[in-house]
Amino acid sequence: MRIYFTFEPRPDLREPLLAEFPQVEFIFEKSLSNEELQQADVLVTYGEDLTEESIQYATKLKWIFVASAGIEKMPAQAIIERGILVSNVRGIHKTPMAESMLAHILAIKRALPWMYEQQKKSEWSKKAQQTELRDSTALILGPGAIGSEVGRLLQAFGVTTIGCNRSGKEAAYMNTMISFAQLKEALPQADIVISVLPKTTETTHLLEEEHFAAMKNNAIFMNFGRGNLVDEKVLIQAIETKQIGHAVLDVFEEEPLTSDNPLWTLPNVIVSPHVSSHSSRYVERSLEIFKPSLTKWLKGDTDLENVMDLSRGY
């Protein structure tokens, strides 16, 4: 069996993989090669390098392991037509992303950005507008692995959590649950609104003008899912008209954000360039998911962890 990685794990991660699976021929490269793709039985990729054209070269390919949670940049239809199984690392991001979200929330609540600006100006001032996180309410759109982890951390700080998904079905570390249909009615309760929703047809522009109008004017809005959640013009208007207090954005409709985009300079906006999931342990955690799945695959078992339904987008 030939397994083709389109990235190179560090030697301390690669060597144990080779030792654990001596019967497998591993190919490690820093980019996608159609020549190697022609010979691969299994592909391990971040997903962004695959195209409809390259899939045509993958005549032997039976399984794609995506070392990423999102698949929106992959040629889904071409993969479906070929009957290739796809699995990913869903859940791998929960620790770094939840820590990133909590860091931003605490920084805003305790006025850290203001303090940093005062330090730059060498100004001693005690006029910081600091508030407490305790006794706040957070509404979390998409309480899956990531949303539930941030819910767990927020509950430890004495925050009430409201989870919101398509069905309203119960999720971990949520005090209450609502469906998308109940979202507008629940927004006035929230001090913090966090989205970690995937990109699907249903989530595209899920938040509209009426939703921002329903939020508290001092609410913190955070988008750490996908940029399709809200039309950028609607978001900018909500910030400019002070319908919300702060926006922390890790994802955008168009990435990278252009240098002339007003989000860079609007007050009370934090631009995080899609880095909240980054961690020095990323590949390590990816391989922790890949290895048990590979063990199953070698035995002919296709019931792998995190098998994806490409037709639904997750």
UniProtKB/TrEMBL annotation:
CDD domains: 2-Hacid_dh_1. Residues 102-276 form the D-isomer specific 2-hydroxyacid dehydrogenase NAD-binding domain. Keywords: NAD, Oxidoreductase. InterPro entries: D-isomer_2_OHA_DH_cat_dom, D-isomer_DH_CS, D-isomer_DH_NAD-bd, NAD(P)-bd_dom_sf. Transmembrane segments: none annotated. Coiled coil: none annotated. It comes from the Bacteria. This is 3-phosphoglycerate dehydrogenase. Gene3D superfamilies: NAD(P)-binding Rossmann-like Domain (3.40.50.720). Residues 14-301 form the D-isomer specific 2-hydroxyacid dehydrogenase catalytic domain. The keyword Oxidoreductase applies. Pfam families: 2-Hacid_dh, 2-Hacid_dh_C. The keyword Oxidoreductase applies. Belongs to the D-isomer specific 2-hydroxyacid dehydrogenase family.
